[in-house]
Amino acid sequence: MSITELTFEELAALVKQSAGVTVAPEDLRNASDVPFSALGVDSLGLLGIVGELENRHGVALPPDAERSKTPADFLGLVNSTLTTGV
Amino acid sequence: MSTEQPKRAVVTGVGVIAPNGLSADTYWKSVQEGIGVLDRITREGCEHLPLKVAGEVRSFDASTLIEDRFLVQTDRFSHYAMAAASLALDDAGLGRDAPEDPFSVGVVTAAGSGGGEFGQRELQKLWGQGSKFVGPYQSIAWFYAASTGQISIRSGFKGPCGVVASDEAGGLDALAHAARAVRRGTGAVVVGAAEAPLAPYSMVCQLGYPELSTVEEPDRAYRPFTAGASGFVPAEGGAVLVVEDEDRARDRGTAVRAVVAGHGATFTGASRWAESREGLARAIRVALDEAGCAPEEIDVVFADALGVPEADRAEALALADALGAHAARVPVTAPKTGIGRAYCGAPVLDVAAAVLAMEHGLVPPTPNVFDVCHDIDLVVSRARPADLRTALVLSRGLMGSNAALVVRRGDETAR
Predict the structure, then answer these.
(1) A44 touches chain B (CB under 8 A)
(2) Which chain B residue lies closest to A54 (C-alpha atoms)?
(3) CA B291, B304, B37 angle in degrees (round to 5)?
């Protein structure tokens, strides 16, 4: 199976689409420990991103994904799920 | 013992998003000129429905007025409310940012149906693609409370908030609720209502109302108080006001534009229009009583003007019951015949018109209405100059709510 990792580019596009928040991929990468809430992404916005990723990849993400506090946490969780194919 | 006078709730800001204007100024210019903007419905997906005429808010670009992070999670009805709230806050000189004391400002809106367009989009995903494709913001966007919540979040207001879901008349009930909050000590309340009933699902929901006009000629579709009355035409949009403690307003040097003086509300049952006579008359008496206002002091009446013969008759009789001989003399107007009825937004637009009418000394006319067949002095054709100190605004809902609000001119009541 093909392994697709979630990138900061893709996450930035999802943040824009699902939460209406514009953030540059570099800024996400450079400040990946800044909480989503500080970026203006609320819990429903993150839930929307999780749903979109699940639909795209046809996998269920762990319940903790939508509780991630920062982009770094989120990417770590999502990518470990996507790459292990669980 | 305190000799302090009770607090009074005054209007310091007016914001309007209406079919005939995207600001209070443009709205008033159209209202004053009696310009009718009812037109064929052009909204996508509505062409095949038997409701053909409405008051659409056109040239409204939400993306230029509301930030993306709010746009993704809100329906059109909240866009109108948020835009009107911004205008009202600007007008009141309060600005759009969080106030120094966030607990001093509250928000109250009324809503009749919530966010039908957003809801339809998500429900189509639910039944078309599956539950995993429904966005999480569906949980809040369609909801009646959405506009109150988003206005308060957007500006950082943390004072008392509320949502009134009491039918069209809820627009007036929301103002009364806000005025009470101010009298209890809240500095200011951002209050009003806006609706967006022109979308396929929302329109289908309205088709069952026997009071709905299905006349296809825009200038003949909504003509209350005439022999040609054939029901009402819906509209979208609404108005938001800033209602503030009078002393606070005067301390910060803001113009007191009107005083929210009295309110009354009753219920007489869905579509029981003959019975609304008694309910409306009682609401008027209660409002006059609270305002300490004699019937003869009412200088203008903004009528509910449903456009259903039985309901129009009941309203004319209710005025006679509550105002006595003065009912035949007082000028009555219904500017909403030019734009349609924006459900809960309609009476708030009328309050905005009443404030502006008192400021300009003009009773605006009732567009498209000429041959009045009731015993009231309905102002038609052109605005009538008059010294207006006190206005009475009436509203009834299709589900049976009746409400009356007395507003007085700001400069008339300085103390």
Answers:
(1) yes
(2) B132
(3) 125
**Contact between B68 and A51 using a beta-carbon 8 Å cutoff:** no
Phi, psi of B215 (to 5 degrees): -65, 135
Range of the domain at A36: 14-84
Q: How many CB atoms lie within 10 A of CB B4?
A: 7
CATH for A80: 1.10.1200.10
Domains and CATH numbers, chain B: 9-251 (3.40.47.10), 261-409 (3.40.47.10)
Are residues B140 and A20, on separate chains, in Cβ contact within 8 Å?
A: no
Note whether A19 contacts B: Cβ–Cβ < 8 A: yes
Please, where are the H alpha helices in B184-299? 200-206, 246-251, 273-291
Q: Give the residue carrying structure tokens 């101010």.
A: B182
- The predicted structure's pLDDT at residue A3: 57
> At residue B263, what are phi and psi to the nearest 5 degrees?
-145, 145
ipTM score for this prediction: 0.89
B61-74 residue pLDDT tens:
999 999 999 999 99
Tokens of B60: 């409204």
Q: Which residues, including other chains, have CB under 8 Å from residue B77's CB and lie 6 or more apart?
A: B111, B113, B114, B115, B116, B146, B147, B194, B195, B196, B236
A7 in a structural domain? no
